[in-house]
Amino acid sequence: MEFTKGHGTGNDFVILPDPDGALDLTPGLVAALCDRRRGIGADGVLRVVRAAKHPEGAALAGEAEWFMDYWNADGSLAEMCGNGARVFVRYLLDTGLAEPSDAALPVATRAGVVRARIEGADVAVEMRRPRLYDASTATLGGLTLAGTAVDVGNPHLVCPLPAGLDLPALDLGRAPEVDAAVFPAGVNVEFTAPGAPVAGADGHVLMRVYERGSAETLSCGTGACAVGAVALRDAGRDTGVVAVDVPGGRLTVTVTEDSCWLCGPAVLVATGQVTAKTLHP
């Protein structure tokens, strides 16, 4: 199989070109590709397939040519990935599968169609406006933290740390315990702390995340959108711009009246071939 490796603020992906949907992609193969010792290593797999050629994308083929078939590192499927969408668009443009233009480029996902634009060296994607819908908790060891449940096409729980708790010191070596009644399909859990003021932004937040199906990652795009929406709400705002610093860099979240833009770097770092039979699913 041909592959490309890319990342957005350290959130890394194996990209598999499969325009006609011919690849037999299985959970075991995905997990083997993402294995950081026996495979290529990644937080997830992005399969590049024409929407009309994928059963979950066919209904959206009239709106977007390409479907982002995203899989978590453990081989489970995910509805959406903000950094993945940005890297996906970078791949389409750099390989000539899509042409840059002044109009936003549509991409089909399991969460619907997102639109992307190039902003200098960065890629920005427009997604649904985050929906804050419930209060819940996450437990790490003996520490229980209050949080807000947020829908960004996939589920999130945003937990601001109380004063006195150090964000870098949190042990995210195991999954936080959450309420299965609130999150029956699992949830991405974001832990946040306030950052110093940033020019041009209405807020600044520091974030770490434990992603369902991938463990702790250096960045989570939809998680940054969820965090930005919660930060704006806590500041008494419905819209605005929030700088979100993740371990892998900085993302900029812009919440509007009806959508949310996620902007940051998207980089392709390698191309090559992998032999599926040598992997260890």
UniProtKB/TrEMBL annotation:
Homodimer. It comes from Micromonospora globbae. Its EC number is 5.1.1.7. This is Diaminopimelate epimerase. It is found in: Cytoplasm. The active site is at C81, C81 (proton donor), C220 (proton acceptor). The record marks H156, E211 as: Could be important to modulate the pK values of the two catalytic cysteine residues. InterPro entries: DAP_epimerase_AS, DAP_epimerase_DapF. It catalyses: (2S,6S)-2,6-diaminopimelate = meso-2,6-diaminopimelate. Transmembrane segments: none annotated. It comes from the Bacteria. Catalyzes the stereoinversion of LL-2,6-diaminopimelate (L,L-DAP) to meso-diaminopimelate (meso-DAP), a precursor of L-lysine and an essential component of the bacterial peptidoglycan. GO terms for molecular function: diaminopimelate epimerase activity. Pathway: Amino-acid biosynthesis; L-lysine biosynthesis via DAP pathway; DL-2,6-diaminopimelate from LL-2,6-diaminopimelate: step 1/1. Keywords: Amino-acid biosynthesis, Cytoplasm, Isomerase, Lysine biosynthesis. HAMAP family: DAP_epimerase. Substrate binds at N11, N72, G82, N83, N154, N188, E211, R212, G221, T222. Belongs to the diaminopimelate epimerase family.
